[in-house]
Amino acid sequence: MSTHPAWLPDAAFAPLGTQRVRVVSDDDVVSRTVRAEVARAVATFGGTLLADDGAPSFVLAELAAAERSAPEALPDVVAGLLEDAVGGGGSAVPGEAASSSGPDAVVDAGLEPEDFVLARSGGVTAVLAGGPHGLLYGLHEVVRRGASGFVGEIAPERHSPAQSLRMLDHWDNLHAHPVMGQVERGYAGGSIFWVDGEPNPDRERIRAYARLLGSIGVNAVAVNNVNVGSAAVLLTERLGDVVDLADIFRAHGIATYLSVSFASPVHLGGLDTADPLDERVAAWWADAASAVYERIPDFGGFLVKADSEGQPGPFTYGRDHADGANVLARALAPHGGTVIWRAFVYNHQQDWRDRSTDRARAAFDHFTPLDGKFDDNVVVQVKHGPLDFQVREAVSPVLAAMPRTRLAVELQVTQEYTGQQKHVCYLGEQWSELLGFRPWGEAGTDLAGIAAGHGPGGRRGGIAAVSNVGTDEFWTGHPLAQANLYAFGRLAWDASLDPLAILDEWATLTFGADDDVRAGLREVMAGSWLSYEKYTAPLGVCFMVTPGTHYGPSVDGYEYSPWGTYHFADREGIGVDRTVATGTGFAGQYPEPWRSTYESLETCPDELLLFFHHVPYTHVLRSGVTVVQHIYDTHFEGVEEVEARAAAWERLEGRVPADVDARVRALLAEQLRSAREWRDQVNTSFLRRSGIPDERGRTIFP
Amino acid sequence: MSTHPAWLPDAAFAPLGTQRVRVVSDDDVVSRTVRAEVARAVATFGGTLLADDGAPSFVLAELAAAERSAPEALPDVVAGLLEDAVGGGGSAVPGEAASSSGPDAVVDAGLEPEDFVLARSGGVTAVLAGGPHGLLYGLHEVVRRGASGFVGEIAPERHSPAQSLRMLDHWDNLHAHPVMGQVERGYAGGSIFWVDGEPNPDRERIRAYARLLGSIGVNAVAVNNVNVGSAAVLLTERLGDVVDLADIFRAHGIATYLSVSFASPVHLGGLDTADPLDERVAAWWADAASAVYERIPDFGGFLVKADSEGQPGPFTYGRDHADGANVLARALAPHGGTVIWRAFVYNHQQDWRDRSTDRARAAFDHFTPLDGKFDDNVVVQVKHGPLDFQVREAVSPVLAAMPRTRLAVELQVTQEYTGQQKHVCYLGEQWSELLGFRPWGEAGTDLAGIAAGHGPGGRRGGIAAVSNVGTDEFWTGHPLAQANLYAFGRLAWDASLDPLAILDEWATLTFGADDDVRAGLREVMAGSWLSYEKYTAPLGVCFMVTPGTHYGPSVDGYEYSPWGTYHFADREGIGVDRTVATGTGFAGQYPEPWRSTYESLETCPDELLLFFHHVPYTHVLRSGVTVVQHIYDTHFEGVEEVEARAAAWERLEGRVPADVDARVRALLAEQLRSAREWRDQVNTSFLRRSGIPDERGRTIFP
After folding, report:
1. Are B589 and B401 in contact (CB under 8 A)?
2. Which residue of A has its CA nearest to B178?
C-alpha cells in the first residue's frame, strides 16, 4: 500500500525545485538529508544543485563550513549573515520564547546547532544555520514559504526553537495486545516500528515518518510503549532493533529514546531487587546504558512510567520518584543521556465512596515535595492537565510548582478522548491555549515558557506528546488528523504561533496553494475542538466516556470507578467541589491569581465550572444561562456545528484527492452519528435527572 | 495438575464397593463403563465382581441380556422385576413427568433403553435396565443412595428420564479469543477440549468429564461454541477431532453434537451461496452429514445459532428460520440426527430512543409464526427468559406458543449474569422454579412438561444448558459451582426433584455423609440465588451490569444501548412498560392467566414488577413497602446474607478439604466485596435519582 505523503508531497517542493541551490556544509548524516531533499526537488522541477561554484538563487549554509569558505565565494547575503552571526549581533527574532529574558535565552548567544537565520537579498535566498539540524529546519522553513520564499527581500530573521526537547512518545507494543491492539490508544492501525514482535520490514515507511518529523522540528522519539511489558528486552538482547531505528531517525535530526521498565534489573538482569539505592542495581543500569551508547553514541535516553497504573517503580522499595529517576540518570549522565520521568502517578484503585480523595491532586502531592531532588539530566514530563488529556480540564498546577526541576509539558496527539481519529478535532487550538496559560497571571510566563526555561527556576524541559500515527495509509486514520501531528511540531518549536496560521500552512503544503481549499478546511477544522467539547462532557466535568475504550458517551461510566473520575450528578446538581473551602482543596494547588479565581463560584470560568464546583442545575453561569440549559444548548449546537463542517467538506468535492475525500466523508458520517449519540444521551440523562425541560422546546428523548 | 473428583470421589463408591456384584449385560461400550465402575469400586473397597455364578448382593441387569438368562440363574428380585417389565405392568414411578398423561408418557410402555427399575429384596439390590444407558443411570442411582441402597427392602421403583434430550452446550473456542477468552462466558479457565487450536492432549480430563456427565444423566454434548468462527472446520477437515471426542463421550451414554456455521456451504464448500432453498446447498449439507455419520454413526446432530448477534443465517437469502433449520434437518434425517436451532434472535442494533421496540418480544415475534413448519428432527432451543439468563426475568412466552414444534428449554449453568463462578449462587432453585412455571395456570403443564412432550401439541424437546466447566482444577472455578452442573443433570432428568434435596445429594457425594457439612452447605448455598438477586438488579429490572464483561454493577450500563436492555430510570420512577394497554405489548404474548396477571399493576408479582411496569419510586409494592425502600432494603439484606453465608462457610473449617476451603474463602471475600459494591452503587444511584432517603437511616453514600 502506498503511503500518503502528508505535508511533504512533491508539489510542496516546486518553488524550491526550480532554484539554483548551493549547500555549504560538512559531511554529516543530517546535511546529507538536506542535500538529498534539494537534489530530489531540483530533479523533479528542473532546478540545479550547484557544486562549489556557480551563482545560486538559494544557499543553505552551515556556520562552520561557511566560516571556512572564502568570503568572496559566498553570495553577499550569506556573507552578511555570517558576519552578524559570528559577531553575535541580534537579529529580528520571532516568537515569545526568543524575545523573553530568562537566563537561558538565546537571543544574544551565537547560533546554536538547531538555529538558523533566513534572509533574502539581491535575488538570493539564504539560510545560515548553526549546525546540520538548523540547516534541515531552515530548508523546511523555506519549503513552507512556498513561492514567497523566492521573491522580493526578506530581512534577516533568526529562528531558534523555543524548546530544546520536542519529543514524540510512541505507545507501540511489539505485539498486538489482545484488548488494546498493538498501539495503545492508537487509532491508525498497527505500529510502524514493530510487526508481530519483530522490526517492521518496511523501513521506507519509517524513513518517511522520520522525514515528516524532521521537517517540523521534532528532535526526539521514544519508540516503544511506556507500559513496557515484553518490550523490555529492547534494552538488552533486542538492542540491535533500536540501533536500526536510531540510524533512520538520526538522519532527520532525531534522537532515539527507549521506554524502559523500572523492574529491568530483576527481569532482564536477574537481580533480586530493582531498589534504586542498591549498588548492584545502579551498576546494572550503568552497564546497560554503556552498552547502549557503545552502539548508539547519540542515544537520547530513557522514558519511564513508574508506579503508575500498575507499572513497577521505586515505591516497591520504599523509595521516591527522585531516587528512581536519579539511578537511571546517573547511568546515562556520562554519555549525555536524559531520563524523561512521567509524573502521571495516581491511585487507580480509589474508592468512589470517599469524596475527599481527588485524583486531580495526585501528581502535585507526589511530585512537588521532590522539587530540587532530581538530577540535572532528569526531565519530569507532566500531562497538561491533572486528569488525563480531557477535551477540557484545568491546567496541571504541577507545572507551576517545581521551579528547581526540568519540566516537560505532555500533550496527546493521539485522540484518545477527542474522537479517536474518527472525529475532526483540530487540537492546535487547544494546545495553543494550554501552552499560553499563565499560572502566575499576566505578569508571569506561560506553560510554554516554563518548559522553555523562563519559569522562576529557569530550568529547561520541553514539550512531548503521544503520537497519532500507525500503519494506516493516511498515517493517522483520519486524513485531517495529520494536521495535529503537524501542529504539534510547529507549536513545540514556537508555541506563540497562531494555530490557525499553522492550519493554513499545513493545508497549503498538503493540498496545494488553493485559497478555496484552505478556506474550506478552515470551515471544517477551525474550532472543531470546541465543537467536540460542546457535544461531549459539559463545563469541564470530564470523563463521561465509555469505560475502557474511551470512545462514545457513557454519562455515568466512570461515576463509581476505581480510576477516580466522578461528576457526582444527582437530581439536584452536578460537579466536583475542588475548592479549598468545602472541597478537595485542589484549587489551592495553584498560585494566585488562579487559586482565588477557581475557588470562587463568581470568578471561575464557565468552561471549568464543574471541574471546580458542585452546583445546582439551576445555577446561572456567567454566560447568563443555567447549567442545565447550557448542557442542552451546547449539545444541540455541537451537532449543528458538525453538520455544518460536514457540509463544508462536501463543498470541497473535486478539489481534494478522491481517496482522501472518500475516507473523510466516511468518517464525517461516523462523527455525525457519534455526535448525535452524545447529544441525545447527555441531554436525556440530564432531563431525566433534573426534570427540567429545554426552554426552547427541542427534542430531548425522555 | 490433579483434577478434583467432583461428585464422584472414590469414597462415594464405598457402600457399593463392599458388595458382591453381578453385571448381566451384552458387551457394549456403555456396559463396559458400568463394569469398569463396579470393578474399580470393589477393587478399592474389598467387594467382588462376580462372573456368571455366585450369589450376588447387587445385580445390574440389562433387559435383553437378562431375558436370555435362565430364570433360575437370576436372584428372585431380578426375576420378579423382569416379569413385571416384560409383562409391561406399571410400577411405582417417581416424578411428575412419569405420572403425567401426555401421549408420549412412558408409564405403561415397556422399559426404554434409558429406563431402569430399582428394587431390593431378600438381601439383594437389583437394577433392571432397558438398555446399557439405563444400566449406567441405575448404577449411579444406587451410588447416590449410599449405604441405604443396601439395607432393608426397596419396593420396585421405575426411573425414566422425563426429558429425552438432556444436553450441555459448550461455548468453547479452538483458540483463545483476544477479548472473550477461550471459553465464551467461561469462568473456569481454558477449554477442556481444545488447546491452542488443537485437541487437548489431556484425554483423561475429557474422560473424567464425560464420566461426571454420564453419572447425572446428561446424554448430549455440543463440543464447540455456537459463535462458530474458525471452528467451522470441525465439520470437515478437522472431523477427526470430533470422532475422538465422540469415542470418549459414547462410553458414557452421551451423543456428540457439533455447532455449525450456517455459512459453511460458502466458507467450507466454496459455493457462492448458503441459501437453504438452493439445491446445491442442500446437497452440500447432505454430503457433509453423510461424511460425519460414516465416522460417527451415533452422531447427535448440529447446534445452530443463526441470524443472531452477527452470526450468519437464512435471513441473508430472504428465507426464514424454518427454511434454515430444515435444510440441515433433511441432511441429518437419513442418519437419525437432530438439528438444535436456537431461538435467541433479536435486533442487537436497537435505538434506545425508540421506546416501542422491545427485545423481550423478539423471539416470539420471529418464531411463533413458524410453528408447525419445522421438520420432525428439529428442536428449537429457547432461553428460559425473553432476555438473556438474568437472575430474574419473566419466563419466555415462546415456550407456550409453539405447540407444533419440539421445544427445548435453555438454561445457563455458566454463571454469566449470576456471579461468574466468583459468587456462590446455587441455581438449582432458580431452575426448579422456572421449570415448574405453568404458562396456562395451575390446570396446565409446566415448562418441564412442555419440553417433555406434555404440552398441547405433545411434541418432545428437551432441556439444554451452557456448561460451566474448564481447565480449572475444581472444574468450575468456584468449587461450589459444581453443584450447579450436578443439579442441571438431575433436574433435566426429573424437574420435580426438590432442588434442596439435590443439593444435599451433591454435598453427600462430594464431601461425604457428614450431617454437619451438609447442613453447613445448606446455610452457604440454599437461597444463595435469592441473595444474589437481592444485592443486584431489583424487581426484575435486569441488566444493571458492566457492559461487555457482565460482571459487577453498572446501573446505567445498558441504558443507552443497541443491545436493547433498558430500565428508563429517571427522577420520578423506573421500569419497562411492557403492558398491552400502554407499553410494548409483551405481556400480551402470554396465555391467560399470566397475560392479565402481568398486565395489571395490582396482580403483577413484585419480583417482576419492573419487568412489566414503569412506576414511581413511591409506588407501594404488594409487600407493603415502596419501590425505592425495597431497593434499599433488599440491597442491605443481600449483603447481610452473604456475610452470614461466609460465616457459615468458616464454621466448616477442618471439615472440608483444605484446597477447597482455601479457594472458597478467597472467592467469598471477592463475593463480599462485589456484593457491597453492588449495594452501594445501586443504593447511591437511586438515592441520587429519587432524593428519597432510607427510612431506616442506614448508610447510603451520597
Report:
1. yes
2. A178
Say which of B554, B571, B702 has its CB closest to residue A689: B571
Nearest-Cα distance to chain B for A429, in Å, is 32
Q: How far is CA A384 from the centre of its chain?
A: 10
A702 touches chain B (CB under 8 A): yes
Percent of chain A with pLDDT over 70: 96
CA distance A544 to chain B (A): 12
Q: State how far Cα A508 lies from the chain centre.
A: 21
Picking from B688, B689, B692, B699 by the largest number of A CB atoms within 10 A of its own CB, the best residue to mutate is: B688
Instruction: Give catalytic status of residue B416 as yes or no.
Output: yes
Q: Give the global pTM.
A: 0.92
Nearest to A689 among B352, B560, B689 (CB): B689
Q: B84, B241, B320, B388: which one is catalytic?
A: B388
Chain A residue closest to B689 (CA)? A571
Three-state secondary structure call for residue A409:
strand
Query: Testing the interface with B: which of A556, A685, A687 to mutate, by most B Cβ within 10 A?
Result: A556
Largest CA distance in chain A: 82
pLDDT tens profile B270-315: 999 999 999 999 999 999 999 999 999 999 999 999 999 889 999 9
Q: What beta strand segments (E) does B63-207 contain?
A: 116-121, 124-129, 154-159, 166-169, 172-177, 181-183, 194-195, 198-199
Q: Of B75-89, B469-483, B651-665, where does mean pLDDT reach its minimum?
A: B75-89
**Euclidean distance between CA atoms A566 and A559, whole angstroms:** 5
> What pLDDT does A51 receive?
87
Alpha-carbon distance values, A541 to A387, A455, A693 (Å): 11, 29, 21
Cβ neighbours around A499 below 10 Å, total: 22
Rounded CA separation A619/A215 (Å): 49
Mean pLDDT across A437-456: 97
Tens of pLDDT along A625-657? 999 999 999 999 999 999 999 999 999 999 999
Residue A403 pLDDT more than 60?
A: yes
CA distances from B26 to A307, B33, B61, B69, B127 (A): 69, 12, 10, 11, 15
Give how far A420 is from chain B: nearest CA, Å. Answer: 20
A25: CB partners within 8 A, 6+ apart: A31, A34, A35, A60, A61, A62, A65, A132, A135
Which triple of cell numbers denotes residue A226?
A: 511506556
Contact in structure between B360 and B387 (CB atoms under 8 Å): yes
Question: B689 and chain A: CB distance < 8 Å anywhere?
Answer: yes
Calpha distance A48→B565 (Å, rounded): 69
Distance (Å, rounded) from C-alpha B453 to C-alpha A623? 70
Q: A304-318: per-residue pLDDT in tens?
A: 999 998 899 999 999
CB A214 within 8 A of CB A162: no
Instruction: Name the burial class of residue A175, with classes exposed (0-12), middle (13-18) and buried (19+) by CB atoms within 10 angstroms of its CB.
Output: middle
What are the strands, taking DSSP E only, across A418-551? 462-466
Catalytic residue flag (residue B309): yes
Q: Shortest CB distance from B571 goes to which of A553, A560, A688?
A: A688
Q: Does A182 touch chain B (CB under 8 A)?
A: no
State mean pLDDT over B425-443: 97
Contacts of A557 in chain B (CB under 8 A): 554
**Residue in B320, B416, B505, B607 annotated catalytic:** B416
Contact B556 A560 (CB under 8 A): no
A279 is catalytic: no
CA-wise closest residue to A143 among A506, A469, A480? A506
Contact A295, A239 (CB under 8 A): yes
Share of chain B above pLDDT 90, in %: 92
Share of chain A above pLDDT 90, in %: 91
Q: Looking at the complex, does the CB of residue B684 fall below 8 Å from at least one CB of chain A?
A: yes
Cell numbers given for B497: 426433584
